[in-house]
Amino acid sequence: MHHQFKSPEGPIEVTIARDGGVWRLGDIEANPMADGRLRMVGPDGSVNFAHLAKVGDVWWVHHQGHTFKLERIEPGATDTDDGGGLTAPMPGKVLQVLVEVGQSVEAGTTLMVLEAMKMEHRIVAASDGIVTAVHFNADDQVEQGVELLSLEDS
Amino acid sequence: MVSKVLVANRGEIACRILRACHEAGLATVAIYAQNDADSMFIELADEAVLLTGNTIGETYLDQQQILSIANQTGADAIHPGFGFLSERADFARAVTQAKIQWVGPSPEAIEKMGDKMTARITMRAAGVPVIPGEEIEHEDETDALEAIESASHRVGYPMLLKASSGGGGKGMRAVHSPEQLIEAAMGARREAIAAFGDGRVYVERLLTGSKHVEIQVLADRHGRTIHLGERECSVQRRHQKVFEEAPCATMTPELREAMGQAAVAAAEAVDYEGAGTVEFLLAPSGEFFFLEMNTRIQVEHPVTELVTGVDLVREQLRIAAGEPMSCGPLMMRGHAIEVRLYAEDAANNFLPAIGPLAVFRPPEGPGVRLDTGVREGDEVTPNYDPMLAKLIVWAPSRDEALQRMRRALDEFIVLGTTTNIRFLRELCDEAEVISGRTDTTTIDRLWPHGWTPSVPRSIEDAALMAAAVGESAGLHRTQHQASKGPEGPASPFSTLNRRFP
């Protein structure tokens, strides 16, 4: 069976095979257990248990002390991530807008200051660019995930 | 006499206090805002009363409302926990005037220590060393900025701007060069006004390379003021403590005695009563300077409890009831470490995270203590502080305590909300942490450009496979029923029994 998950470097394809009650990927083996965990047997025969939970489209996996958040791409879905957008990481209030439309900024420049959970958070340019839009003013409330400003790479 | 305690707090610390009250045989009252209606602490109280109002100011900070609940329920003591109203002298005074016992020091002591500038002046008078710096009393922005600018020449760079009413890193800014001064001062004032309604900011020399070492004190009404040794809390991020331990790895018996005596002198200078913490900066030279006194129970109090065997919250209750404290001479045994688990994305500039606690499975086993106010199934919301839990371990030596902490963090499973567990786990592998040579700049120096996890490829591959198997095998449909026991696959006989009684 074939699944796709999002990653910062683009979609990752995972193909697993079923062999009776056991699933295989290369020489890793996974056995579903009655409590929803997976008993994972590595190439060297080592046994570890993976804990899973699905929230929305995201699979949360805990394996060997690491936690992974793997967003599944539904078959047939197109990737609509346009990049370049700067979105609110949390619901909060805009404290300061430090740039204006048309301004050139360098990577690392603070563009906006938000207040969320009683702390200030800086929205910072990830790359050099030109501000093409500013969607909020100081004191505006913003929801999580909304685009705050637009930046075009220069 | 104290017989019924109202806990004017929520979350983890409310749970801690409510449990101590039960153990002491005291009746309890919890208060809660509507958005806490399903929170764990309510279940630990004998009675729980809903606060009207929506904001924190209208609920957990509403003094009149809390006092009238205390009267209605017949509570004869109020324990404020930490944060919220715990260091509000006006509340302590109102509680006392209502003939209710305040679990904490007098309003006068809170006032003298709560205003950081007054505290510096009081400590200087009591012969306790303070950090070189200047108090600035101006409230007007223009005057204050001018005075800060003028003080900056005498104090010198790098310096720290601190809100006089501050705490928890709010209203604090490090300034490394004159160009940053005005923006930093405005930022500190803005945060201080928002958080405390008081924009006064003072200037201190920034003592780089120093350790944050604090002394726990206890004072009762029977003439005893003692210290319970130190905690080291140098590992901080944005002035928020992350990793705390007792004892301090580089402490000597002589220095402990000197700092302990200074802490006792600080407490006695304000006629202190109850549990408190005197915070010091310990410079590489071995000199120490008073930072501030927290006139309440502290987040990291469990590490002291584990190495001294003293139950600090029980002692608070005992002292508030007018009894003498029960501790004997100071005995420190073994080593304890606490880490603070936050709902935050450590790999993304530590942004607070929200979401469901779809799986919340804390570690168990010898020497492991968990103080939390959440359980599996709860929702992490942006309404309150993102601290989920404190994980505390004890072991006979510091090395073993670190080993135990690594093991415990590896076992800790939280799914559905991003946490800093992996960050804390990798912190335990850093050479500075292993050697105990941490200082307050450790995190900034180790990860100047932010932290990213190092994940072995094989583990990532296995995780991707696990998610794919989860999807194909439909594990998301089965796992929660299965893990809940009675609702899981039951024996056919018990099913028959239930269906046909």
Brief rundown of the structure:
With 154 residues, chain A is an all-beta fold. Chain A has strands spanning 2-5, 12-15, 17-19, 22-25, 28-32, 38-41, 47-55, 58-63, 66-73, 85-87, 92-97, 104-105, 110-116, 119-124, 129-134, 141-142, 147-153. In chain A, strand 8 (58-63) and strand 9 (66-73) form a beta hairpin.
* Poorly predicted sequence stretches spanning 5 or more consecutive residues of chain B: 480-501
Number of strands of chain A: 17
Number of E-type strands of chain B: 23
Q: What strand line-up does the widest sheet of chain B have?
A: 14-13-10-11-12-15-22-20
Distance between the termini of chain B: 52 Å
**How would the global form of chain A be characterised?**
elongated
Question: From the alpha-carbon coordinates, what is the Rg of chain A to the nearest angstrom?
Answer: 21 Å
* CATH C-level of the largest domain in chain B: Alpha Beta
User: Largest sheet of chain A, if any?
Assistant: 9 strands, antiparallel
- The class by helix and strand makeup of chain A works out as mainly beta
Helix content of chain B: 25-40%
- Contiguous low-pLDDT stretches of chain A (5 residues minimum) are 79-84
**Helicity of chain A, as a percent range:** under 10%
Task: Examine the coordinates and then state which fold CATH places here, giving the name of the CATH topology of the largest domain in chain B.
Answer: D-amino Acid Aminotransferase, Chain A, domain 1
CATH superfamily of the largest domain in chain B: ATP-grasp fold, B domain
Described by the principal axes of the CA atoms, the overall outline of chain B is: globular
Number of helices of chain B: 18
- Oligomer designation: heterodimer
Question: Main interface pair?
Answer: A-B, 54 and 58 residues
